[in-house]
Amino acid sequence: MIFALVALAVLALLVLVHRWLWIRLVRDTTAPGGWPRRVLTGCAVGLPVLSVAALVAGRAGAPFWVQRGVAWPGFMWLAVLLYLSLAMLVAEPARLLLLRHPRPTPADASIAGGAGVADGPPAQASSAAPLASGGASIAGGAGVAAGRAGESVLGSGVSSAGPLASGGASIAGGAGVVSGEAGFVSGGAGIADGPAGELRSGSAAALVAPTSSASPAFEAPPEAKAGGRAEGQAPAPQASPAIEAPPEATRAGAAQAARGVGSSRRVFVARVLAGAAVAAAGGTVGYGTYGVLRGPRVKRVTVPLAKLPRAAHGFRIAVVSDIHLGPILGRAHTTRIVDTVNATQPDLIAIVGDLVDGSVHDLGPAAEPLARLTARHGSFFVTGNHEYFSGARQWVDHVRELGLHPLENARQELPYFDLAGVNDVAGESEGEGPDFDKALGGRDRADRTAVLLAHQPIVIHDAVRHGVDLQLSGHTHGGQLWPGNYLAELANPTVAGLERYGDTQLYVSRGAGAWGPPVRVGAPSDITVVQLASYQT
Asked: Cα(523)–Cα(83) distance, rounded to whole angstroms?
């Protein structure tokens, strides 16, 4: 019941995290209905499904090819999800800071949106065709134009297809009005009024003429500028009265421009932060993956033991834990580990659990290189919790066939010390849990050093009670993915390295492989060569 409640809580948390990431990475950065949003939304739905499939495929008995098919994308998404979420959490204060600015006034919005007020001397507007009287139109954006004597001063995104012809040409396109002797313009968010077609203010956009014939740029004659006419010319038509735009329309146009400014800013900030977060998460996961696929590095630790005889000084034990052969890490991974271990020329090899994540049928070929392990006093194996998920009995029998010596709650008396091994605590569900009395009972505790192989560090207190001098463990992966080490500390007495508990020393390896995502961040994989030292030298 408790497990089910925890599972539901974790599932609900994952749904909320994915929803939040979709808002920040997809909704805030893409246009509604566009193909980028559709593709990214599909990924936001499909990748979590693959992650769940990767987690349950093995235990559900799915064919191995199915496990391999869902493992790479499913497990890798879990790693990306972790660091993408952390990156977006870091970016959230920056987003709030960058979007914190005073609310723009209508005038500020007009200027910020590309609109402005232009004032100047007479000028000519380039044209492709004249604007016929009463037939022209302006379809407007958010610009403001002003000038004199037929001048066309173009704001944001304004183009002219022809000059304003005399005679009350109406140009409609928004909520603004331009009027004068040469015509009037209605278009945008402002009002212009003046002689000879002057545009004082407004929101000008494209000047479009109904005719296709080209004509030279229009310039009002001097007489028109002075309010008169040239000799022999027809009288100029009377100026059309100015048309006032409703104040509500003016305010609506300015508000719309302000919203456009704010929307553009939000999208820009969202895209920059999303790009930075994706780059940071991708780089982190990529480097962590390289570290695992490259293979573990050798770490050397010296452990002095009080009862170790002088003849055993310098005895080397190669400690290998958490190889985790499975749908991602296969035969090549085993080969790298075997070659690395053999290169250290150890006296004894100890594989302390979590060798596999699958059955002998699926992973037997991947484990075959273990038969090449070479050590003077042999190679030994104890079960980990993942062996019991995969069928511990079949794996114990298989590693024996490969030349390893399983220690199932058993002890091996070596020339210089006793080597004992206990089953993992996960075996208790099958009646095969650790039995310290069987493994360590009846030995000479006063004069003989005892080295214990136990997968999980949590049994250290049992080891102390039974007079163990050194316990070698794994299981924690060192946290594997930062900040997972902090969670690992809550469940284990030691996460990685060497620590002392009374008269017993505990060494915990970070492991040679990785579970789930083949990624390690802040906890590099290792093979540890533990060199025993005698106080009698």
From this structure: 15
CB atoms within 10 A of CB 316: 17
pTM over 0.85: no
Residue length of the chain: 537
Q: Using CA atoms in the order 108, 268, 48, 364, what is the torsion angle rounded to 10 degrees? A: -160
CB burial of residue 443 (10 Å; 0-12, 13-18, 19+): middle
Token look-up 């098919």 returns: 69
Where do the CATH 3.60.21.10 domains begin and end in the chain? Answer: 296-534
Strands (E), 196-310: 206-208, 297-305
* Separation between Cα atoms, residue 505 and residue 460, nearest integer Å: 9
- E-strand stretches of 27-182: 137-139, 159-160, 169-171, 177-179
CA distances from 28 to 44, 107, 520 (A): 14, 27, 31
260 confidence band (pLDDT: 50, 70, 90):
low
Strand 316-320 to strand 348-352: parallel, antiparallel, or no bridges (unpaired)?
A: parallel
Give pLDDT tens digits for 197-216: 343 433 333 333 343 444 44
- As a dihedral over the C-alpha atoms of residue 21, residue 25, residue 27, residue 30, rounded to 10 degrees, the angle is -170
- 296-534 is classed in which CATH architecture? 4-Layer Sandwich (3.60)
In sequence order, what are the residues at sequence separation of 6 or more whose Cβ sits closer than 8 angstroms to the Cβ of residue 241?
Answer: 179
